[in-house]
Amino acid sequence: PNRTELTRDVVIVGAGAAGLTAANELRRAGLSVAVLEARDRVGGRLWTDVIDGAMLEIGGQWVSPDQDALIDTVAELGLETYSRYREGDSVYVGPDGTTHRFTGEMFPVAPETERVIAEITERLDAMVAEIDPDRPWAHEKAEEWDRISWDAWLRAQTDDDEAVRNLAFATGSAMLTKPTHTFSLLQSLLMAASAGSYSNLVDADFILDKRVVGGLQQVPLLLAERLGDDVHLGRPVRTLEWSGDGVTAIADGMTVRARFAILALAPVLYNRISFVPALPRLQHQMHQHLSMGFVIKVHAVYDTPFWREKGLSGTAFSPYELSHEAYDNTNHGDARGTLVGFVSDQHADDVFRLSAQERKDRILESLSHYYGPEAKEPVVYYESDWGSEEWTRGAYAASFDLGGLHRYGAQLREAVGPVHFACSDMAGAGYQHVDGAIRMGRLAASQIVDEARA
Ligand code: FDA
């Protein structure tokens, strides 16, 4: 009875950075749009909220200098950026649990381990330089590199366990957020190529460079504002009928008929939609070889940024710690200090088996190894738990299982009839990042504009 029926040129499923970018581009090209969003807010994996009086960026937040698509969008929307606090010493915890302070890029390991890390990094940079992030499967060794796990490849380069762990975690715990035996060398090289080089990826000052004043969710919020009534919240799309003539998207309480659709959601969620007729077998198979990584982003707010008084920058990491990396995440102009730590893959599984109190204790204990006992007494504590969000189901993003990238990667962005796909999880440059979401939103929109004119 109360079903709203709309007719538009393009229906966009998902009001994250990808979908909202696409919708704005399509409108600029003179096409009419409707964006259907399952949640009661826009932004998807970008979400700024106030928790116990602290403004926290629950999802994505950092911008790095190579991310032109995001940087342009941030500037065009009139948003301001600020740098992550980074004055003072960084901290590394070694295999025996000893805390070391250091400055510069190379962290304090034995000279032989340092040499091995430098040598393998050089080898990786050379391999990454040969990879086109938009077509990693096109490399002549793609299949070979996709058949070996990231862990197995590293272990074949050296017997130095500390070197392996430190090299592994840049694309493992820190990026794909999966155990390093579950994804391939090729997938790891794509992750690095998407940020320009392996060296860029391990350089916190590069990859975690700037934040947006007021939070990165302002990007989707402002993009949605421009679309006004064309964004519909609380409208999960349940069924998508498609044919050569166009599409019908059936959401809770709303039906949209359109010439084209863009599915701008994480690919692991495509199977929540009933496609009529079913998608081709290739898509059915391909989508089952993609899965979400899993990481807990931990926010701990203190009355003061106490670590700064000790001469610490807040930058801390260790492949031996529960929280493998942590940073000063104090908001712009905030007198209080905020630390952000990350707990990834199997560590995240492990701590979610504990009670909330035990989990908090274990995580704060780990942060105290970097910053001292004061870290155990935050005034606000919060864990971003994207694994339990129905419309995301993990963090940060999706990647192929071992061997899946060379087998299916080339088809991931290919439209099926009038149905197009856009998401950070299929980007080349900016893969798994907001920058990649924007790029994929632009790409899908430009494909549709071309087809609509043809
Ligand atoms: P996204 O998932 O954001 O949007 C998809 C939308 O589709 C969602 O709003 C969802 O509700 C909706 N949807 C799903 N199914 C639907 C259905 N059936 N019907 C209707 N709507 C549906 N990136 C970065 O650049 N810097 C960073 O620092 C970080 N850090 C970070 C931390 C954490 C904790 C997370 C979870 C993620 C990051 N990221 C990041 C990654 C970044 O947030 C992410 O890559 C993009 O925001 C993804 O944008 P998309 O639009 O592609 O998908």
Automatic annotation (TrEMBL):
GO terms of molecular function: oxidoreductase activity
Obligatory cofactor(s): FAD
Short name of one Pfam family: Amino_oxidase
Domain Amine oxidase: 18-448
InterPro entries reported in the protein's UniProt record: Amino_oxidase, FAD/NAD-bd_sf, Flavin_amine_oxidase, Flavin_MAO
Keywords of the record: Oxidoreductase
Residues given in the record as FAD binding sites: E37, A38, V237
Binding sites annotated in the UniProt record for substrate: F342
Family: Belongs to the flavin monoamine oxidase family.
PANTHER family to which the protein is assigned, alphabetical: AMINE OXIDASE, AMINE OXIDASE [FLAVIN-CONTAINING] B
The name this protein goes by in its record: Putrescine oxidase
